[in-house]
Structures are given as structure tokens and as C-alpha cells.
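USER:
I would value a second opinion on how I read folds in C-alpha cell form. Give me a protein, with the fold worked out from its sequence. Write it directly below this note and I will take it from there.

ASSISTANT:
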Amino acid sequence: MNAGFGILGPLQVVENGRSVDLGSRKQQVVLAALLSRANSLVSFDALVEALWDEAPPQTARKNIQVYVSALRRLVSEGSGSRISYQTGGYVFHAAPAELDSLRFEQQARSGAPAEALGLWRGPALDGFQDVPLISAAAQRLERRFLVVFEDWAEAEIAAGGGPATIERLTEVAQRHPLRERLRMLQMTALCRAGRRSEALAVYDELRQALAHELGLSPSQALVGFYQSLLREPEPAAPEPDAPPARGRAPSLLPWDPPAFTGRTAAVRRLRDALVRDGNRLTVVTGPLGAGKTALAVHLAHRLGDHFPDGRLFVRLRGEDGTPRPFEDVVSQLLPADSPRSLPEARRAWQLWLAERRALVVIDDARRESEVRPLLPESGDSAVIVTARSRLAGLEAGYRLRISSFAVGEAVALLGRTVGRERIAADRHSAELIVTAAGLLPLGVRLVADRLALLRHVPLREYAERMVGARALLDELTAGDVAIRSRLAEAIGELPEPAHRAVPRLGMLPEPVFTLEQAAAVLDADENTAVRVLESLLEASIITVPGVEMLAHTVRYEIPVLPYAYAREMAASASPPFTTIKPVANHLHTARHYPSF
């Protein structure tokens, strides 16, 4: 059999240029475990744990023998076998020419790092990160990749590596944002290309990430390098008659969400709107936790060829949720020596956009007035805005609303964290869990993090805890990320009549209701109730599951998580509710609506 084996990316076996069907998931786990330790013994006990964790069947040893027998037929070599039995386990025999991980090491040691790095097709053993035995091997390979990559990058920078080196450094740094040597190399490459302001921005991003994720500060070496950049003199001003310099624009995006799941149709439609149809403004809307930001960032990472002058990302809110001044927002997007006054900053930003074809992701917009000054007035740059409300005052070329996942997508996201085998063993309970989490990416991710910690808790038991919980929102928290606080912020920013309506809707016995039921619980006439409900619709607090022709036949729905929070508000309401006063016949009076 003339075969090649690959683990530097998804598991693959190629025979004569064609991929080989590797059989069942468990059979693939056995093969991945053997390949990850090629030419070394993998014990029966290790394989049992990889396949069944702490609950192996009585037939575990026999099952492994069946899987190995099937694999031997797939990967046999002439009259012999690549898989041999040795006391206590199995060994997969492979040469560097046959297995990419061995070839990677051989080329790296022989002084051919570029060829070695070219063997990588993605994260090592992608798809098996839920198996600790294989995950540990994948992490070892990834660490080795980083060492080789950093050595290669250092040599490239010393040899005067250009934009391609910076682009590769940026891409790898986005996957490993806390690795200091990688970040220092990125800063060095940017500085040598005359892009010092971007190098300073890299340091600031690393500093914030270290503080947030690990509670640490950058190393003294990195701090010293940063301070040396600050002490460097500013570049000389151009001659009066010289044309303005146009440096290569930055590509400063958050790293691509590693657990991004589903949204295939949404990604395609948004890409078509930007690339095929040439829309210069797209708006992505949806409720809390629907994954608007993740979608925009995920797509932006894939549009580098279409926006060669840069892909940028800016949040319109600070860490405490307060709006950032326009000057502060623009200072993040423009070089450090750009004008600071409001009129000059606006003019500098528009000139920057007009000269480039760049993509800007504007995140968490609450009102149109925040976005308008950032939109390109001319040129070929494009903008993606994420918001909870439609921002109907903006003349967007394309609007995309995303909502909750389908059940299958939500279960797939859950499985990426807690393990596909655990899901397959009790899919019904997994579906109950993700449904209780509102089928929203944020809710599913939070509950997945808890289940990954509570490996000893059966899915059935956890499903009962969530479905029957009085305090469902207590389960949806991880570190400083909590659904309850996000809902509190969003509902707290509603116009006063809509804000006071939320706990009243929490008094409804069911989350699906009619206008008549809403008017009764709001203690208001139907005209007033309609306006209040439209405010809540605009803010993505409630939805309309189906399309009806007459207002009095509409069925409204308050989704799972807002409904849970509304019930908490109703239970703690004091003083007693007062009558909802009539509101003006206009959705945008009093206040603007929040975005999720």
C-alpha cells in the first residue's frame, strides 16, 4: 500500500492520491492515538481511557482488538503490517516519508524550516481535542510548531522579510495571543517595516490579554522593548510638496473564534454581500448571545484577499459598557501620530479610508449616530456593523439578522467542548441542555464550559438540573462572563415603558403570548401595548415566531433567557407595579435601543 498519513491537521490517510475511509469514530480514535505516538508503544490502558474515559464496557479489550484488526487491513504494507502487538499494547511503525509529523521534525532539524512549516494543514489532530491522550500529543506538536515557526520568523526578519512575513506572524499570533516571543517578533517585524504604531498596538493588546486571561503583566524583556519603541524619535515630516505616504494598512482583528460552529448560510450570505455585490455597509443584528461578533470576525479573517489594505476591529463600548468617545475610537484605528481633535480626527479617518480598500468591523453599536462618522464617504473600503437593533436610520446595503441555533448546531458546539463521545452516549439529554440554554451560542458555550469541569456529572442529571432550575441563569456563567449581567445591561437601557414592561411579561405563565394577554398583564390598552412590544422587538428582547396579517392575531414570544430574567425581575419587583403609560407612536423616542 503506497500510503501517506497525516496528523498535522485533520486526521487523514491518502492512498495513491485518494483519501481512505477510516471507519467509525472509535476506530479513528485508535488510529489517531497510534499515529500521535508513532514507533512507540501505546498501552491497552491508554487506548481504553481514550475510547471510554472512566466507563469502559466489559468487552473493551475485545473491541480494541476489532478496531486494530480493521485498521491493519486499511494500512497493511505488503505481506507485513504497520501495526504490531507488543506486550501491553500496540505500535504503529512509520517512516518520515510516510507520516507528516515525523517528516516535519526531520526537515526542521535538517535546516529546512519553511518546508517543515508547509506540512501543516491546520491544528494538529483537529477533531480529537476532546480525547485527552490525543490532545496532549497535539499540544506537544503545536508547541514544537511554534518553536520552529519563531526560529523561521526571526531568520526572515533578519534577512529583511517583507509583508508576507508580517502577515504570517499576525495569523499565528492570533491563534496564540499570549505567547510573548511570538508577539515580540511581530512587533519587531512591524517596526522594521516602519509600522511602529501597529507594533505599539500589539503590545497593548498583549498586555490587556495577559491581565484579563492570566492576571499577569508582560515580561521585563518585553516591557523594555516596548519602552525602547516609545523613546524612538518620530519619523521626519515629509517635504511640503511630497505626496502623502501610504503605508501598508494593519490587519488587527481579534483571533478567529476557535469553537466557531454552524452559521454556514449566514457566512455565505454576508460574504456575497461584501464581495460579490460590493456592498460597503452591512449590518448584522440579533439577540444577546447569538454570536454576531464571532460571525463578523470569523468572516473578516477570510477576506484578506479582497481587502488587501487591512482588516480592522473596534468596539464602541468600553469594558464597563459605556460609550467610547469618537476620538478614542479613531485613535485605535489610525496611527499614533494622527490628529486628536474631533474635526481633524474625522477628516484624517476619511482620508485614510478613501485611499485604501480595507474592511472595518464596528462592534456593539447602539445608535446610528455612533456609526455614521466611521462610515467611508468615498473609496472602496467596507464596514460590518454588529448591533442588537436594526439601526434602521442607516442606509445599509445589506442587513443580516441571526437568531438562535438549530438544535443540531447547538449540540455540535456543545460536543466540541465536552466531547463527541459524551454527547453520542446521551444525545437526548444534550438536546435538552442546549434548548434550556436558549439555543444561543453564548449560552451553549457557557454551559459547555461548566460541563467540561463537571465531567463526573451525567448529561441526564445536568439536564434535569437546568430544565427544572428556578435559577437557570446561575448555570450560565463562566468567570466574569454571565448571561444575567448581560441581560441586566440590555434591559436597563430600554426606554422606560419597555423597561417596566419586562418584569410584567415575566408574570405570564408561558413565554408565547398574544397582544390581548400582553395588554392585560401590562395593564394598558392595546394601542399602548403594541408600541411597547414593538420597542421590545426592536431591541431583540422579544420575537414574533410566525408572520401574521393582523396585529391582534400575532403570537409574540419572549425567548428562554430573557423570560428567565423577566421572571426573576417579577419575583423581586418592589414597589408594586404601576400602570404602563401610553407611549408615542414612534419607535425611536426617548432613548435608543440596546444591541446584543
